[in-house]
């Protein structure tokens, strides 16, 4: 839980090795080679901590989490400035297509691999030969839009539009932009709206947002398409869609996350991220015999013989972000320092 702002440390003597290993890790991640991905992630984390350049296989082998094959690759990178295994993947047309298909909104490994196995290699193949859902078509047609980062001033413009529309219906509703924007990023991939209302039931909040605000934002041609929504949970809801700013043709992804006011602390931690920070703070909670999720920090998780969870545990805190840090025994970390 060290402070981290996510800026790459170019002064790290192993920066080039780490850069190449990351590309190799991304390849294994795409091809679903789970254990190799984990091995590379651990090796990269270990190398980042070194203050001296690791040049030989022997030196690499002395580092925890680095096995013989990976150590050989580190030596290869240092001596040749390249990695043959990585270059081979770049010539693999199926891998290139897989990388492309994984960029389509909502498309995961199983769908992308299915298309590859059916012989598709380009977006045009998909549009002309594959059977697509409406969302997949939208994802393909707007693949460049969704990949376009949203500058911070535009994120704020989205914020004003949504805030005005909501406050016209109910000024007591509170709106926070979470995700990368809350972490202070200069641009964002999407806009994550966290929406809550003190002293109101989720049913009330849902009715206002889903039945009134969203239809009105469609009418004003701000919202363009609904991608996904889940309203089944009695304790929260999400709505994912696309929106355009006035005068712009670029479709951006926006999410509305409806959160009970009593759970705002835990929800803020989760929806602020980043994803790696979330993973590490959850791991910390579980090491301390607690459990953190987007609804709260829990304790007394009773486990059975196979470590399966037998009870939910008792709620320790959910309303206050700072109290959750306190209960975990770590200093409060401002959102800007949650970039891992
Ligand atoms: N999140 C997470 N694990 C994931 C995905 C998301 O914990 N696998 C959490 C952390 C961030 C938050 O949800 C919003 O997710 P994104 O919008 O995907 O990420 P972001 O950090 O806002 O980055 P971006 O600028 O790309 O939107
Ligand atoms: Mg985001």
Protein described:
This protein is α+β, with helices and mostly antiparallel strands and 340 residues long. It has 4 domains: 8-89, DNA polymerase, domain 1, CATH 1.10.150; 93-147, DNA polymerase, domain 1; 150-259, Beta Polymerase, domain 2 (2-Layer Sandwich); 275-337, Beta Polymerase, domain 3 (2-Layer Sandwich), CATH 3.30.210. It has helices spanning 15-30, 34-48, 57-61, 68-80, 84-90, 93-101, 109-117, 123-129, 134-141, 143-147, 152-169, 179-182, 202-219, 264-272, 275-287, 321-328; strands spanning 150-151, 174-177, 187-188, 190-196, 223-230, 237-243, 252-258, 290-293, 296-299, 314-317. The strands form 3 sheets. It has a 5-stranded mixed sheet with strand order 2-4-7-6-5, with helices on both faces. Strands 8-9-10 form a 3-stranded antiparallel sheet. It has a two-stranded antiparallel ribbon with strand order 1-3. A hairpin with a 6-residue loop joins strand 5 (223-230) and strand 6 (237-243). The model has no long low-confidence stretch (mean pLDDT 92). The structure holds 2',3'-dideoxycytidine 5'-triphosphate and magnesium ion. Magnesium ion (MG) binds at residues 179-180, 188-190, 192.
